[in-house]
Amino acid sequence: MDGRHGGDRRQQLTVPQVNIVDMRRELCHFPGNEPGEGSAMSGWKMDRAAAERFVAAWCASWRRVDIDAVVAHFANDAQMRSPLALSLTGSPVVSGAENIRAYWREAYGHIESADLKILSWSWDEAIARLTVWWQLGDTRASEFMDFDDAGRVVRSEAFYGK
Question: Which InterPro entries does UniProt cross-reference here (predicted)?
Answer without folding.
Answer: NTF2-like_dom_sf, SnoaL-like
